[in-house]
Amino acid sequence: SWNYPDEPSWFYKLDEIVYHMLQHDGHVSILALDKMRWQSVRDFQFVPELQIRPKGSDVWDMEIDICCIASGHTQIGEAKSVSSLKSDHKSPALVATRYRVLAEKLGAAGVIFATSAAAWDTTSNSAIETEFDKNPYLRVIRLGYGNLMD
């Protein structure tokens, strides 16, 4: 038992990697991958965030937040903590286009758009629908907070 002096205070510190994952909204990718893992009827494999570079270039052209093989089907995707696909330099339409084109080049079965917001905003949903109507063979999975946590 602890008598004298008073019991010292306890302090906890998150591991640095966990801290950075939470600081940079990595939980959205993790929740999306976990959802895909639970829905997978066979094997499930994933890789962490990937940077796509044109052949021979040192500068990355695109970042993929989600990349997995679920039940034998490759899925790539975008994860955001906000309700819009818009970024500093890219419109929702451009983001949707880049994912469709990359999915076609990779031979992916589909694209996942995950957000920790309740749902994607109207502009992002419209961009996704418009872009993926061009290739009805690509499966589009939209995850928002409600179905991300199921």
The N- and C-terminal alpha carbons lie at a distance of: 44 Å
Number of strands: 7
> Helical percent range?
25-40%
Structural class: alpha/beta
Biggest sheet strand order reads 1-4-5-6-7
Largest sheet: 5 strands, mixed
Please give the radius of gyration in angstroms: 19 Å
Round the mean pLDDT to the nearest integer and report it.
Answer: 90
SSE run: HHEEEEEHEHEH
Report the β-strand fraction as a percent range.
Answer: 15-25%
Helix segment count?
5
Low-confidence segments, given as residue ranges, are none
Shape: elongated
Structural description of this entry:
With 150 residues, the protein is of the alpha/beta class. 35% of the residues lie in helices and 23% in strands. The protein has five helices and seven strands; from the N terminus they run ααβββββαβαβα. The chain has a five-stranded mixed β-sheet, with helices on both faces. Helix 3 (92-106) packs parallel to helix 4 (122-132). The chain is elongated and about 75 Å long.
Describe the secondary structure blueprint for this structure.
Layout (H helix, E strand, L loop, with lengths): L15 H8 L2 H14 L4 E4 L2 E3 L9 E3 L1 E5 L2 E8 L11 H15 L3 E6 L6 H11 L6 E5 L1 H4 L2
Parallel strand pairs: 5-6, 6-7
Antiparallel strand pairs: 1-4, 2-3, 4-5
